[in-house]
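To: structure subgroup
Subject: Chain for Friday's discussion

All,

I'm putting the inputs and outputs inline so they're searchable in the archive.
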Amino acid sequence: MIDSHAHLNFPNFQKDLTEVLERAKQNGVDFIINIGADYKSSQIAINMAQDYEGLFATVGFHPESLNEEKFNSRLLEDLIGQPKVVAVGECGLDYFRIKPNDFAAQKLQQEIFIAQIELAKKFNLPLVLHCRANQKEQNSPYEQMLQILKKENVKRGVFHCFSGDWRLAKEFIELGFCIGLTGIITFPNYRHVDLLKNIPLDNVLIETDCPFLAPQSVRGQRNEPAFVKHIAEHLANIKNINMEEVDRITTQNTKKLFNI
């Protein structure tokens, strides 16, 4: 099994990383993709990947990182060239904390997203996509990302923590992207069960997004890679297949996408 999107590079795991990795191994998790969200977390992910055989790193600049520092494409490019970097991201659009009519902030996020697309092209790496809307415009940033990806002719990556509907998922799949499913799918108020029923497993990756979004059965705890099995189990139940099949196919998908 593979946790295709984790943040073990965040301070939440600083004190007990060894134990967390051991629990992951005991629960059948062989590989973990550690996701960069800014320069510091990207470098930490790279360092951890070099220290631990089953870890890999991505390099990216999360749109909300703009609240802390300026975007610098050259800094990211220098990081991408290091060993065991398997993707660019997470990157994308996040309008959750900006006003709906703040078009300047939206435009800046779009420009930084495009800059990271260019880096992915330059290094022939897949993208790890992030998208979050505000409460009033649920689909707007998804639609904008879709148009940007089409215009930039990008067809390789994963839409992490996908929270859109089946219609949107189909459009990203048709473009060539995989869909990343997190513990959100196990929540009682999850609205898109039709997506889980309809989406082909060949287009799915499973992920924890730890330390966030612990699955319902361990809700309230710090999320960690060992819990990715709960997502596989839930998806297997929805699709009425065994968990081993979900594990086999999603593991194969993740290895293929990230070339591991």
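Points worth raising on Friday:
The longest strand covers residues 85-94.
Residues 21 and 147 are 38 Å apart (CA to CA).

D.
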